[in-house]
Amino acid sequence: MTFDYFELSSQFDKIEEKIGYLKGNELAWDYLMAARDQLGGYESPGDDYRPISMWLEDFKFPVPGHEVDPARWFEFIFWVPLDLFGTDAGRTAAAANGQYMKDVAKGALEAWNNGASWASGLASYCRQITDSFTRADAQAICSALEDLHTYVTSDFSVNVLDDPFGIETIRTQWTGKAGSNFNTFYANYDGQVAQMAWASVQVAQTFAAGAHVIQGTQQGVLEFAKSIVKILDQQLEAWAPIGPPPRDAPDQPAWVADVTKIVTSGWKVLGHVPVVKDVKSQFDAVISAGTDVNNFVKTIADVTGTDLPTLEKTLDAADSDEVYKLLTETLYDDYQQKFVAAMDSLQSGSSIDPGDSGYQPPVNTSDVLDDMPPPWFPPSDMPGEESLR
């Protein structure tokens, strides 16, 4: 399944929008509670006072598709002295109370709009955290690897093992100093080509492992973003249509890919290509490894989020702050940092999980350099040897 960066970007935009609605509901609710409590509540300031109840009119938290009407939860009690009833002063007080209710509704709406301000920039931040692996094109890498197998590794093997030019026959018939020099050169030629073939399959393995990590991490973060959108929808639905704030955390845990297991599952498939002195055996190992890499590469594109190993992360609370914390910490700790650790491990050859030998990357750059024999150069007395260097 080809990763769609723009789909992920769209999910981040939805998260910013919806978490802004959730925060707006919370801010507006808190504002209304403070405005109501400011009046003193249900306790009379004295025996000569009478309570007057007023309610919000035509006011809702304007969440698209999930409007919340908080009116029934907020009874505003105004305590009016008994001697003001029926007087001009009483009518002035009633007008002031009515204006207070209008101001409360206006203030609550402003508080609700502050939710969008609070969430502003979250989508850009999410894109910035994930850019290190979402901007890479795993499919382009896989296509290049298939070409590498077809036009490089396979060609090296054919040229040496199949002897298409009949050089072995020529060697037996060519005598004299020129023949001896050629035989000396050709005796080392196979080994040099074997080194190049071995190196090419090491390159293929490295990029195949990298493409596997990239594809898995990309698909994983897309599924995670979708799960956060679902969590936000669930919480907004829990508010509608009359409030109050939901008390329970979401039933559905966030979907988080286990990037470490994604990484090592590819490494275990690829394995190591041994270095052997016998040229024929070395090419057999290269051919086998090259075929394995090519077959593995063809499976990378089939990886989807739902196929990946997962971690379970639950929310302890139902509010926007908890969702925000889960989102940002998971993107950084469980995706970006683990992706970087995987690539660092692949580069250095160090294990990503020392507790599991199967978590060793297939290629160790230092081992590659140590295991390769020194390059062969023709002797200085061979005619034209400078051109062969």
Structure, described:
The protein is mainly alpha-helical and 389 residues long. The chain folds into two domains: 23-119, no CATH class; 122-388, no CATH class. The chain has helices at residues 5-37, 88-119, 122-134, 138-161, 167-173, 176-239, 259-270, 279-300, 320-348, 365-371; strands at 49-55, 75-81, 254-257, 310-313. It has a two-stranded antiparallel sheet. Helix 4 (138-161) packs antiparallel against helix 6 (176-239). The longest helix has 64 residues, at 176-239. The mean pLDDT is 81.
Query: How helical, in percent, are the residues?
Result: 55-70%
Number of strands: 4
Task: Supply Rg.
Answer: 35 Å
Tell me the β content.
5-15%
Shape: rod-shaped
| Averaged pLDDT | 81
Order of helices and strands: HEEHHHHHEHHEHH
How far from one another are the termini?
A: 46 Å
Q: Describe the sheet with the most strands.
A: 2 strands, antiparallel
What is the number of helices? 10
Name the poorly predicted regions.
Answer: none
As for the number of domains, it is 2
> What structural category characterises the helix and strand content?
mainly alpha
Sheet with the most strands: spatial strand order: 1-2
